């Protein structure tokens, strides 16, 4: 599977500019024959949380329509990072995934809201996991701060995920945590971890990318530079079974003890 990770700058509080950028990135990745394209977190608005009433995508309609249309047009799976949405219960940080037929195969609301960026003040937390299939491969998706909760990612892997997608707006000052946690989640769950982080800055933080793809053995298949762009890597999916057969942790675990 050829992955394309988009490490984009996000125009703060300017969804229309960001929609145009996303459109252009999808066309570029399709020209490189990518199977899957992955975007960062909250790419429609950035963390312009005070303006969500004006900016959030109502029921994600604009996002779903665009991702679905472009996924079908270019025959590419789109893991749509996440966008700020407005739903009946309030504002959410929502991931949509469109498969290459244009079907929306996942809608996930971020479960763990990040206090340091005021998410719990403005947004509602999701209540459900996020498992979906791309080309018959079981995948899972969580968002940024969710990465710090190993039990949440383990729950997705126990439900069958072989690839975990993790879009983020993870600030520069905690890059060491980002890299170590991504690698740990891949090794402990013996799955691929595909993580897209943004670049640029907003009024409160600077972001320097370092998007990554880690194999089930912990090998770094991709560790991107700091600039804006699309970064590509092929992932051999049979690595998941090979590693799980080499060290059979899912047979050896003792859930009755914990
Ligand atoms: N947008 C986020 O959830 C950021 C999470 C983060 O920076 C962290 O350290 O955790």
UniProtKB/TrEMBL annotation:
Main EC class the enzyme belongs to: hydrolase
Name by which UniProt lists this protein: UPF0012 hydrolase MtnU
Biological source species: Caldibacillus thermoamylovorans
Record GO terms (molecular function): hydrolase activity
Keyword Endoplasmic reticulum annotated: no
Keywords, in A-Z order: Hydrolase
Enzyme Commission code: 3.5.-.-
Residue span, CN hydrolase domain: 1-237
Family: Belongs to the carbon-nitrogen hydrolase superfamily. NIT1/NIT2 family.
Keyword Hydrolase set for record: yes
Pfam family, one: CN_hydrolase
């Amino acid at each position: 599977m050829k992955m394309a990770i988009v490490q984009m700058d996000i125009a703060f509080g300017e969804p229309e500019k960001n929609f145009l950028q996303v459109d252009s990135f999808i066309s570029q990745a399709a020209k490189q024959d990518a199977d899957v394209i992955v975007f960062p977190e909250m790419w429609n608005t950035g963390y312009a949380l005070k303006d969500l009433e004006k900016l959030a995508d109502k029921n994600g309609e604009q996002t779903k329509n665009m991702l679905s249309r472009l996924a079908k047009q270019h025959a590419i799976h789109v893991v749509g990072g996440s966008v700020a949405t407005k739903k009946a219960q309030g504002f959410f940080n929502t991931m949509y995934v469109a498969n290459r037929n244009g079907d929306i195969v996942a809608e996930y609301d971020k479960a763990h809201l990040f206090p340091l960026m005021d998410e719990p003040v403005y947004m509602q937390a999701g209540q459900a996991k996020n498992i979906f299939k791309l080309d018959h491969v079981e995948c899972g998706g969580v968002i940024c701060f969710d990465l710090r909760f190993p039990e949440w990612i383990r729950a997705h892997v126990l439900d069958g995920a072989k690839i975990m997608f993790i879009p983020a707006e993870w600030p520069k000052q905690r890059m060491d945590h980002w890299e170590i946690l991504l690698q740990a989640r891949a090794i402990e769950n013996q799955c691929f971890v595909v993580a897209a982080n943004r670049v640029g800055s907003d009024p409160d933080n600077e972001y320097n990318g370092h998007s990554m793809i880690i194999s089930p053995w912990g090998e770094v298949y991709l560790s991107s530079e700091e600039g804006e762009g699309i970064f590509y890597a092929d992932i051999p999916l049979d690595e998941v079974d090979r590693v799980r057969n080499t060290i059979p942790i899912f047979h050896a675990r003792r859930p009755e003890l914990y």
